[in-house]
Amino acid sequence: MGSRQMHIARIRDDGQTTLMVEKSDSGRTIICTASIENGILDVLRVALSWKSLRRLQKSASRPVFEWEIKDGSLMVRGSGDLWTCEFRGTVPNFGAEVQLTETETALLREALFA
């Protein structure tokens, strides 16, 4: 039985929002936790296959882009070195929009594409 390698890259942890990328042999999973009202925490996980990662990387090579995963659970918009990730849950008002800094965008790109 082979061992499965997983690594976590932390992109943001500012007390309100945590954004991480879990690296595995089968692709990447973006994990977002976001504080919402009354101490409730949304946890959103979006798995990206290698095929989806290639499509995102191709879109992200343009100066301005918008890319959405097939099931609609994640949209990534970018302009220059600034990305915004919009996570959508399956129920109303369940989701998060995370606007990344240049440094966070660079960290996310590295975690997804390296």
The ordered H/E elements are EEEEHEEEEH
Largest sheet: 4 strands, antiparallel
The total strand number stands at 8
Gyration radius, in Å: 14 Å
Percent helix, as a range, is 10-25%
Please describe what this structure looks like:
- The protein has helices at residues 50-60, 102-113; strands at 7-13, 17-24, 27-35, 41-48, 64-68, 74-79, 82-88, 95-99.
- It has 114 residues and is an alpha+beta fold.
- It has one domain (7-113).
- β7 and β8 form a beta hairpin.
- 18% of the residues are buried.
- The model has no long low-confidence stretch (mean pLDDT 90).
Task: Provide a concise account of the structure shown.
This protein is of the alpha+beta class.
Considering the chains and any ligands shown, give keywords for the structure.
single chain, 114 residues, alpha+beta, 4-stranded antiparallel beta sheet
